[in-house]
Amino acid sequence: MEDERENTNSYVFDPESAAEMARLINQERQLTQAMGGVFTEVPNVAELRNVLDVACGPGGWTLDVAFAYPQIEVAGIDISRTMIDYANARARTQQLTNASFGVMDITQPLDFSDGAFDMVNARFLFAALHRDAWEPFLQECTRILRPGGILRLTEPLDIGLSNSPALERLSTLLYRGLWRAGYSFSADGNSVGMTQVLPRFLRKAGYEQVSLRGYGLDSSADTDNWADGYRNAQVAYQQLMPLLIKAGGASQEEVEQLYQRMQIEMHDSNYSCIWHYESVTGRKPDA
Ligand SMILES: C[S@@+](CC[C@H](N)C(=O)[O-])C[C@H]1O[C@@H](n2cnc3c(N)ncnc32)[C@H](O)[C@@H]1O
To answer: How confident is the model at residue 147, as a pLDDT?
Structure first.
């Protein structure tokens, strides 16, 4: 498998960018809504006391947990100082004393003691972890979970299936770009390449009761999600242009034209788009 990686910075977006933070604020809200709440597929929610949200971004999921479950102490970690400062400020203004946030790099050993958490949650690490970082990352998650603790990983199957030819072409370039840059377990660079391997990874790491749950987020022209989906695509593909050109194999001119056409096609009254993603949940065995 090709791998054109050149540096160790593992997030494909700029984690300190205000535009990226605004994109994540909307995306987090949409994802949680489409998942039907914060703890879908999580057994025995009443027993949760200490929960960790990995790569928490601006803290949307973490703060929703803290608000809905005052008995739970929920921590969020992220590599971005900008995201963490924003999340801490929101916890303070909402007086959520059971939420805390800190800067941490999830490609390194995590600064938590063994068995510290009842649940570890992570969403959309496909563009944050290179494929060879997944195994050590899962080992760290397992170490910091207590016996019987729950690991839930949510990753996309696609980045939106649409009837916009430009958006479809950009998706294809992105899958290929990620794959060639060292992300994704795709066989050929033609898919996100995450959800097919995660259940096996969890079973290999000893998890029990591994379950799958799929979701769909409809952001077609006639839905309330359209505007957020449009802004997400605008901000994401603007940032991703260098990756699409370098690892995706397209020319700058082609990518710029696709970007313009994507914005026009997404304004069509027949524009249709569904984003699919899946949670894989497992239970760490009792000691
Ligand atoms: C992985 S997504 C998570 C989105 C969000 N948690 C959600 O639920 O939709 C984006 C976040 O990952 C963070 N991130 C990327 N690489 C990271 C790393 N190596 N360690 C910690 N956080 C990282 C980025 O700073 C960004 O805030």
So the answer is: 97
Are residues 92 and 123 in contact, defined by beta-carbon separation less than 8 angstroms? no
**262 alpha carbon to ligand 1 midpoint, in Å?**
26
Q: Is 38 in the pocket of ligand 1 (CB under 6 A)?
A: no
Domain 18-283 CATH superfamily? Vaccinia Virus protein VP39 (3.40.50.150)
Atom in ligand 1 nearest the alpha carbon of residue 28: 9
Distance 55 CA to ligand 1 centre (A): 4
Four-CA torsion 242, 193, 141, 135, nearest 10 degrees: -90
Q: What is the pLDDT of residue 247?
A: 81
Sequence spans of domains, the chain: 18-283
Reported as a single tens digit per residue, the pLDDT across 247-269 is 878 899 999 999 999 999 999 99
* Cα–ligand 1 centroid distance for 137 (angstroms): 13
Which of 28, 38, 80, 103 is the best mutation target for the ligand 1 pocket, counting ligand atoms within 8 Å of the beta carbon and taking the most?
Answer: 80
Rounded CA gap, 256 and 136, in Å?
37
Helix (H) or strand (E) holding 149: strand 145-156
What's the pLDDT score for residue 105? Answer: 97
What pLDDT, in 10s, does the model give residues 128-172? 999 999 999 999 999 999 999 999 999 999 999 999 999 999 999
